[in-house]
Amino acid sequence: MTPDALDFLDLGSLLDDEERMIRDTVRTFVRDRILPDIAQWFESHTFPRDLARELGKLGVLGMHLQGYGCPGASAVSYGLACMELEAGDSGVRSFASVQGSLAMFSIWRWGTQEQKNAWLPRMATGELVGCFGLTEPDFGSDPSGIRASARRDGSDWVVDGTKAWITNGGIADVAVVWAQTDEDIRGFLVPAKTKGFSTHPIERKLSLRASVTSELVFENCRVPADAVFPDVRGLRGPLACLTEARYGVLWGAMGAARSCYETALEYAKTRRQFGRAIGGFQLTQQKLVEMLLELNKGTLLALHIGRMKDAGRAHPSHISFGKLNNVREALHIAREARSILGANGVTLEYPVIRHMNNLESVFTYEGTNEIHTLILGEAITGLSAFS
């Protein structure tokens, strides 16, 4: 059997019927709903708010969680959905990741029964949007130093501080906020209309433009006692959520990479120079083959880590392994695809420069390349380089 240029290792055969159905359903949604307009959304710095309900109807918001209107899908199925969403755009996958793996997962994992009942069903449908406030202007890679604080005042808590680079912040109905208290770092649910809570858009981005990125500001922001997650203290809470989000990223990056590879391959077969298609030149073939190798290896890696996660054998360092490798290689694939397209590669007529710009953010967020390198370094040596 001649290998398929778009699935050279026949990785689709490693999926079961339900996984293929989920993959194909999300792929069709992206083709019909995202691809026709994404270049315009990117150019106009727009994320359509009504897309949240459509993603909820699709079933991808919190799809790997059990109960409360969530499908309880496998880790592999969730990963496949992330890959297909990011083949459309990193901003769309980021919305789903922050909604499901950060905001919803925080409530699902650490919240009270009342908090879960109040928020999760309507977040699963996209009626309500959540954001996740951990990163601050001066503390990104080192969340232990965050300065946002929460103090008790009678039976209430009063939150003060600033969070930065928060996806969904400006459209969120609720923020999951991590703040220093006299009892260590704790998590709080802060509804968007709470007095003393405001958001400010981060403008002039050249990456993730089809995504809402905001600064969250808390000034004497008072929330009731039942707004706090009762049983988690320290970084254990937010880091568990980050592991969930990073897992979606390692799949999603392969979706962006696939879009770039497919675009470059088709372009190389039809673009003619010196009287022949450029795909017939040795240097172009070398670029395409290198892209093919890393795309298939990265997708196989994502699938393997997904199977480990479903079996309960995936360690956070395995997720770092996948995030480090797959985002790095996806960015390389995007850059090589851009070179094949030449001048056409810098226009929004093709998806490559959009993916390339987006991946520059993906390379940094949910743990920088350097942070994941040091996580793996500690895993194999037993020695921490963080302190």
List keywords for this structure.
Butyryl-Coa Dehydrogenase, subunit A, domain 1, about 375 residues, Butyryl-CoA Dehydrogenase, subunit A, domain 3, alpha+beta, globular, 4-stranded antiparallel beta sheet, 3-stranded mixed beta sheet, Butyryl-CoA Dehydrogenase, subunit A, domain 2, about 50% helix, 3 domains
Task: Characterise this structure.
By secondary structure, the chain is α+β, with helices and mostly antiparallel strands. The chain has three domains: 11-124, Acyl-CoA dehydrogenase/oxidase, N-terminal domain (Butyryl-Coa Dehydrogenase, subunit A, domain 1, Orthogonal Bundle); 130-227, Butyryl-CoA Dehydrogenase, subunit A, domain 2, CATH 2.40.110; 236-381, Butyryl-CoA Dehydrogenase, subunit A, domain 3 (Up-down Bundle). 50% of the residues lie in helices and 16% in strands. It has helices at 17-34, 38-44, 51-58, 75-88, 90-110, 113-124, 236-270, 282-310, 316-341, 352-362, 369-381; strands at residues 66-67, 70-71, 130-133, 149-153, 156-167, 174-181, 184-191, 197-201, 213-223, 272-273, 276-277. The protein has a four-stranded antiparallel sheet with strand order 4-5-9-8, with helices on one face. A three-stranded mixed sheet has the order 3-6-7, with helices on one face. Strands 1-2 form a two-stranded antiparallel ribbon. A hairpin with a 2-residue loop joins strand 6 and strand 7 (184-191). Helix 4 (75-88) packs antiparallel against helix 5 (90-110) and helix 7 packs parallel to helix 9. The longest helix has 35 residues, at 236-270. The N and C termini lie far apart (54 Å). The relative contact order is 0.12. The model has no long low-confidence stretch (mean pLDDT 96).
